[in-house]
């Protein structure tokens, strides 16, 4: 399964919003430094979809706010 995600780092609280087109807007507490926001994103998605962190990968947008995430079941 592939998901379009827009990340908002340095937010006051973590939250996941689902848009009508199926993409997600995810607010993260972590700053976008040294991959911390990406780590938090993967952890949050693993919890939401109840899969292990190793089943989630960032296909594109590693250093961008807009990312393409792949979840392998």
From TrEMBL:
SMART domains for the chain: DUF167 (SM01152)
InterPro entries: DUF167, YggU-like_sf
Pfam families for the chain: DUF167 (PF02594)
GO cellular-component term (any): cytoplasm
Domain of life according to the entry: Bacteria
Xref: NCBIfam families: DUF167 family protein (TIGR00251)
HAMAP family linked: UPF0235
Family under the similarity heading: Belongs to the UPF0235 family.
PANTHER family the record matches: UPF0235 PROTEIN C15ORF40
Name of this chain's protein: UPF0235 protein Cyan7822_2348
Species classification: Bacteria, Bacillati, Cyanobacteriota, Cyanophyceae, Oscillatoriophycideae
């Amino acid at each position: 399964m592939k998901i379009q995600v827009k990340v908002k780092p340095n937010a006051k609280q973590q939250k996941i919003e689902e848009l009508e087109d199926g993409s997600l807007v995810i607010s993260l507490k972590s700053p976008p430094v040294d991959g911390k926001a990406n780590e938090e994103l993967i952890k949050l998605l693993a919890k939401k979809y109840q899969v292990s962190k190793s089943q989630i990968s960032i296909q594109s947008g590693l250093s961008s706010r807009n990312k393409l995430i792949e979840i392998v079941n």
